[in-house]
Amino acid sequence: MKKAVLFTALCLTLTLGRAWANPIQGTTNPNAFTQDSINWCAAGMQFGCSGGGLTSPQTWVSNDGATGTIGLHNGGSQGFYSFHEGTQLGTTWVGNFPSGMGVLYNGFEFGCAILGVCHQAGIRITFNSAVEGVGAYIQGTNHGPFSATITLFGQNGNLLGSFTADGVSDTIEGTALFIGASSAVPIFAAQFDANSAGNPSDPNCLAGCEDFAIGTVKFGSPIPEPSSLLLFTSSALGVAGVIRRRFSGVH
Prior knowledge:
This protein is of the alpha+beta class. Helix content is 18%, strand content 37%. Strands 1, 2, 3, 4, 5, 6, 7, 8, 9, 10 and 11 form an 11-stranded antiparallel β-sheet that branches.
């Protein structure tokens, strides 16, 4: 009995240590992070969502009042635009996001495959308070297969890791890829990137192979500070010591 209890306490402590050291965990499940979300077309967001250009970065406020910024990273000559999913080309985003969803678009990089230079223009979101996981709906501009990547960053901009998933860009509403990731280390920023392959109607990526848009961003709850987890681990070790002493006289 004594050995079993001590073994359980040790496993708990080692599990906490492994969780702290684990790399990020990626997901394509849109229900993975449901505590809070950002609607780019919500009242007061000032994005407009009618195809207008935006300066970068922009501030945002989530449905539950969290705050941060969003904008282009390594933007090159690309623009930054807001739409909502719909069927009117030019004023709405005609894609595969759920109907009416607010969309942020990283702009056009015309003919980059011909020029031999395609500028990365990731969309980066920052959080004023750390979160444990974040994700967004995403679609490449060029219709057909594309790959999407989410990269997570810590408080000082340190890289936590990245996750890549494949999707299909088309106009079937409600089928957009969701890509997200979580980390045991506090997340203060996330960057979304996408790459589309040339297709028969646009073999040279005139619309931009690295052009993409994101829809609603979802994120999880704030996580304990490292000191809190260390305190919990110390407590677990302390409990193990008490149990050991209590059972030391039992034979």
